[in-house]
UniProtKB/TrEMBL annotation:
Functions as a ribosomal silencing factor. Interacts with ribosomal protein uL14 (rplN), blocking formation of intersubunit bridge B8. Prevents association of the 30S and 50S ribosomal subunits and the formation of functional ribosomes, thus repressing translation. NCBIfam families: rsfS_iojap_ybeB (TIGR00090). Belongs to the Iojap/RsfS family. One of its GO terms (biological process) is cytosolic ribosome assembly. The lineage of its organism: Bacteria, Bacillati, Actinomycetota, Actinomycetes, Actinomycetales. PANTHER family: IOJAP SUPERFAMILY ORTHOLOG (PTHR21043), MITOCHONDRIAL ASSEMBLY OF RIBOSOMAL LARGE SUBUNIT PROTEIN 1 (PTHR21043:SF0). The gene is rsfS. This is Ribosomal silencing factor RsfS. It is found in: Cytoplasm. It comes from Gleimia coleocanis DSM 15436. GO terms for molecular function: ribosomal large subunit binding. GO terms for cellular component: cytoplasm. Keywords: Cytoplasm, Repressor, Translation regulation. It comes from the Bacteria.
Length: 121
């Protein structure tokens, strides 16, 4: 099943926002058929807690600028893994070591990857 146009728009905004704050290796997975409450998981790495916070905040700010409702965030205090709930897209901004340890891409290996545009550095 393809993701909705709204999910695509939110995903594109989130990817661009994460790139603006130098997010690392974004991967989007379509979970529409597996999760009744969202369409896409976006996983992005960061090198420091400060960068995790910066990426999550940039995503929320950009969504608001584009007319979307304020996303909910969890994990801001620890800033090693912040979950940004954008309804149709759930963004996991994680420190590299957390991402390796929890391996969400392997956990959701049966979920098809959603193509995203990433600017090469």
């Amino acid at each position: 099943m393809a993701i909705s146009a709204q999910a695509r728009e939110i995903l594109d905004i989130a990817v661009a926002a994460s790139e603006a704050k130098l997010g690392i290796n974004p991967v989007a997975l379509e979970v529409t058929d597996r999760m009744p409450f969202t369409d896409v998981f976006l996983v992005v790495s960061a090198e420091s807690p400060r960068q995790v916070n910066a990426i999550a905040n940039e995503i929320v700010d950009e969504l608001i600028k584009h007319g979307h409702k304020r996303a909910k965030m969890e994990g801001k205090d620890e800033a090693s893994w912040i979950l940004v709930d954008c309804r149709d897209v759930i963004v996991h901004v994680m420190l590299d070591e957390k991402r390796e340890f929890y391996a969400l891409e392997r956990l959701w290996a049966d979920a098809p990857e959603v193509p995203i545009e990433v600017t090469p550095r």
